[in-house]
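Below is how a single chain appears once it has passed through the pipeline. First comes the sequence as given, then the structure the pipeline wrote out for it. We keep one example in the README because the format questions we get most often are answered faster by looking than by reading.
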Amino acid sequence: MNDGGSSRPSVSAPDNKPMAFPFSTQIMASVSQLIGGGQPAASDPLTGRQREVLRMIAEGHNIKAIAKSLAVSPKTVESHRSAIKVRLGINNIPGLVRYAMRVGLVGLET
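Resulting structure:
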């Protein structure tokens, strides 16, 4: 049901009067974020490619394997790894792995 000129979607309340969806813009933005392409949150310091490289590093892949998987040169992967370390302020691989686990890029293997 629609109120005539409004372009905003509406639903019918139990009394059949139209009402706007009761979702806040913040909730809708969060849902859109989750289902709409995996874009990083505004507070995420890494780009999508950097998160992908970090995930693969945390999974134990070496530079050459990551490069082959992403169809880039090993030097590009090394550049991403360096940028990740700078952005996160982490200077070693174990620290990167802990970060990746903490933010949910990888989980514990059993």
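The chain has a mean pLDDT of 76.

See the next section for the split statistics.
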